[in-house]
Amino acid sequence: MPRLLVAPPRPPFLLRPLLYLVSKVAGGDPIPARILTWFPKGAVAAGIFEALAPDASDLDPRILAIARVAASVAVGCPFCSDMNVAAARRRGLSPDEIASLNAGHEGIASFSPREAIALRYARALSSTPVVLSDDLAQALVEGFAPRERVVLAIAIAQVNFWARFNHGLGVPSAGYDRGTCPAR
Question: Exposed/middle/buried for 115, CB within 10 Å: 0-12, 13-18, 19+?
Fold first, then answer.
């Protein structure tokens, strides 16, 4: 995919401290954040969306990691896959689990029933058109509290937001996971 944009040579003064903070938190080059500085209002809005994203206090961190990697792979975003696989490793996913997610495998024996539901949900919400089967909807209702379903949907939608943004501008992988997790 062609790269359509690079970051401005000098981002707006007020966004520079935020870019520094994002690079420290992300542990690498925040290419999408730097590109967003072409449109400061968009950068601030995306920053708020990212800062308030679901985290370990909202839902089991392994479930969030599985959902984010599954969504990243489903939409084929190299930057998202790279970043989310690196985070999944920190959340305790094994190399075999990550390899299975990257390969798009459906049944991963080491996943709990809730993790498997989150995986299926992430793939369903990341497909076009979105098709949520009655079976999956029932599993979500039985496996997750209402607040947890909202948190999970937001986490998956957030990956889809970034994937569409990154695809639209040709954002490449940034090497968070040393390039070992190609998106499908």
Answer: buried
User: How is residue 176 annotated by DSSP?
Assistant: T
CATH of the domain at 77: 1.20.1290.10
Q: Are residues 45 and 117 in the same domain?
A: no
85 domain-assigned: yes
* Cα(18)–Cα(45) distance, integer angstroms: 12
The pTM assigned to this predicted structure is 0.88
Which helix (DSSP H) or strand (DSSP E) does residue 11 occupy? none
Q: Domain span at residue 158?
A: 61-169
Mean pLDDT per block of 10 residues along the chain (184 residues) reads: 74 88 80 90 91 90 95 93 90 90 77 94 95 96 97 96 93 69 43
DSSP state of 5: -
